[in-house]
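tool_log.txt
---
The assistant was asked to compare two proteins side by side. It first ran the structure predictor on the initial sequence, then on the second. Raw inputs and outputs are pasted verbatim so the downstream comparison step can read them without reformatting.
(1)
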Amino acid sequence: MPMVTLTIDGKQVQVEQGSSVLDAAKKANINIPTLCYMKDINVIGACRICVVEVKGARSLQAACVSPVSEGMVVFTNTPAVRESRRMTLELLLSDHPFECLTCIRNQNCELQALAEAFGIREVPYQGEKSEHPVDDSSVSLIRDPAKCVLCRRCSAVCEKVQTVSAISPQNRGFETVIAPSTTMQLADSSCVNCGQCVLVCPTGALHERDQTDEVWAALADPKKHVVVQTAPAVRVAIGEAFGLAPGTVSTGQMVAAIRRLGFDKVFDTDFTADLTIMEEGSELIERISHGGVLPLITSCSPGWIKFIEHFYPSLLPHLSTCKSPQQMFGALAKSYYAEKASIDPKDIYSVSIMPCTAKKFEAQRPEMNDSGYQDVDVVLTTRELARMFKQAGIDFTGLPEEDYDDPLGLSTGAAVIFGATGGVMEAALRTAYELITKTTLPSLDFHDVRGMQGVKEATVQVGDLPVKVAVAHSLGNARKILDAMVAGTADYHFIEIMCCPGGCIGGGGQPIPTNFEIRQQRIAGIYQADCALPMRKSHENPAVHQLYAEFLEKPLGHKSHELLHTHYTARGRYNIK
């Protein structure tokens, strides 16, 4: 690629032809503030915060969309640049509610940070305020247009990364609002509740439905026996809320902190991730052996499930009937655990801590009550759990490590890697290989299904059978595989699909910011946690063996089908409640 030399603030820099002024400034370690910009996803120059002076140009230029040219001379810090950026911010703030102290994004808001960086202490512009009602129709997400700065980052992610296009700019001019088509409510749209829009929103215009008050109330109720499960991806992200580096494995401190909140039992979703492998692996073997519908597709990502229900309902028979680990746990907490602990299941209040906003929707699905009760009462995101720790004054980083409770707290490394893209596939292969061949795997690490490549393929020799598998993360990549299936060109046996980029470590309920580099660090933490555990194969979990011996009898047995398996709903383009 030809190189271009330009000068930025008196500093010469060389970049590839086709780069933007913003790219060149980053290479020169010169900071240009942005608001609407997201590399490769939202490069539209809409917010005008990144304007710079270019020698010879008649007006200020948006650095994110201005291509470099040979000999270009750029100034990023002139009086005209500073005044323009400041005026833009003041105009944005003039139509913004001053609710910083009560906003869910207080101290983690890009607009707030820019206002502080530019020393804005008053807003000189007074005028009409845009008025749009808060949309709280979704069980997962809240949309507050009053706090929207029309950066379009949310709609760009929804359209270009997830290919759902549930929200987009509606109306024109001062009446513009980011909303579902015809400004219908979010719950009535094709929104899959993935929360990727929340991760990129610079303000509090989109956020999770906070349910911490419900959990505090349950913890204070002496009649309730409150149990909690924690997802694999939470343990490598929760520390970020307390200053730890992304990917730091904080399992023991997290368990200790949760216990200090007052939960009666602290369990691990990883236990039912191991159980999922036993059920789903058996289902795969059953389908291959008896001519069942292939390829089999994983079913543990609720955003992905809602996506296929909306956009590819004809492919629903390919889904595994296994509930997600969250919902398997919920069913067992109010049946198996209730029986062992001699507790009336109506008195058990089941909480899950998830990296995912779609899990809130999943827990409310009408079919998720096979225990005779709603299997999971409340889902909290990683962010909500961090808020509870802070409200309780817990010194997270200073806590000693503690272990999960029995019997639903023992798990393997195979369960931990569920949190990363390719992890479910790798866990399944570790077990399927040994169950079918009756021999020990020469290596537990299936590197072909790891990494951030959008679609990964591999062929694994399992005895006499070459098993062809595929892995996709983000719904845009899932669509590529599904389109191949519709076209009849997808000759796989088994497919793993995760809704969010990077898998659950990049879920919509994880700490903000969540970007490519942070996702990679969290994935590294997931594999570190896997390697540190004494057991790394789901079928070697003695607590799972005990569960089958005492309660479930066998994988795909009658009781397993009653409690651990489910069905799906063909929804079409818009939601069917």
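(2)
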Amino acid sequence: MSKSSAFATLPGALPGLMMDRPLLVTPLLEFAAQYHGDTEIISRSVEGPIHRITYAGLWTRTQKLAHTLVALGIKPGDRVATLAWNHWRHIELYFAVAGIGAICHTINPRLSGDQMKYIIDHAEDKLLFFDLTFADAVAANCKGSPSLKARIALSDAAHKPANPVLADVLMYEDLLAAQPDLYDFPEFDENTAASLCYTSGTTGHPKGVLYSHRALTLHSYAVCTTATMGLSVHDRALPVVPMFHVNAWGLPYAAPMSGCSLVMPGAKLDGPSLFDLMDTENVTCSQGVPTVWMGLLAAMRDKGRKPKALTRVLVGGAAVSEMLIDAFEKEFGVEVNHAWGMTEMTPLGVVNTLKPRFLKQTRAEQMPQKLKQGRAIFGVDLRIVDEDGKALPHDGKSAGHLQVRGPWIVKQYLKGGESPLTADGWFDTGDIATLDPDGYMQITDRAKDVIKSGGEWISSVDLENAALGHPKIAQAAVIGMPHEKWLERPLLICVANGPDKPTLDEVNEYLVSKVPKWWLPDAIAFVEAIPLGATGKIQKTKLREQFKDFAFKSTP
């Protein structure tokens, strides 16, 4: 048991006589280098060419990077930011930063400039490593932060950014070249922080979720089990989910634990690019949001076949449709597994694998079960409660607030003040769900009105507040409406400030500097009045009923 455990020893209990070895993440990569040293990590580089390296080679470079970080003044507890795609250099940062006792802070490049500045300052990042793709964003938004000591471009001197604002940028490959190949990584308490992600799935400022070495290691064990992703030495996994999005669902840690090969897509996440990379590199499994699979499905239909080695895909971030499941499984023989989790859950919570008795059913009988988010995995406790906090039965019918707990569930946000946990130690996910007798969870609604678009959260309240700044808008409300490609997109509902109603283009031109571009509403509607409740809150249930027949224009 960890030295910092809050649990008391039972009176009269006999301690086990096992070694006390800390669960740290960097030994995962060391293990892969020792026992799977010839297994490849293949990356589509930002510079263009396909890059290949083995776990053994990656381990050597990670040790060189550790020396680099120390030379740049990084100490235990310091935050080191990344603004990068999925590739081998980003993996090196994951392990080298955590290995010296510092914290790898992955930044979502889809954030607005103000949000990016906020989280860099809030995290007190000391260094920022960035891909060339994001050079302009770094120049515009990552200068002047009091804690930031240096910015490092993830490339070599031949590709140094030309922007004069980035004249002082250091180049990653040049820094590594000057360092020795071996680094003696220290051992320390497994509850030390290793990784930091910010969630914007709530209103207000993004919140920092600080993952411990222990949580990430235990989560990796869970990811490798056959009840979840079933990773093994025989797999070649392509995580389409970005490494800046909850650590690519834990794949960069779980793959070296299992000896699984990684195929990293870089910035090219469109269907044809994914198909070609999967086909060329014999990818067996892949993980991403439904929008990604819709793009890949179009590419498969265009070619009349699946990528030759692909056997299964994991779908998370948003609900998967029956159409998508049927298309992959019936047309192309690729198994689809639903999954659900949160940034606050590291993120894995449930995965939908069918129990044996469901496999005896017809496909039509199975489908209602397959459409559920899935069954809890060991390490995650689930419960649903009513408004008074009373536990509800797991009958598949009773819907309540979904709450979770476990060794990789958040207990406090970074600099968060008040605990987000209930009085008895559970985290409320903000979702409304059912649990059936077989343990399958299904989300039926959201307690908060955030919008899920292509697997990413959009805060309706933040978008409303931004829209209210437009001089031609008196009142504003935002609701999520079904969309054929992104599954859900924001509809902006307004009361005009006078007879001159703004167009959607006018409003979005105003909003583009206030919120991330992908938050911009796809449609605008005007009403005489927005329904308000007794306390002045917008009654979105009434708006959803009012606009129930609304449909976005079809994508050409």
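---
observation on (2): The longest helix spans residues 55-71. The longest strand covers residues 473-483.
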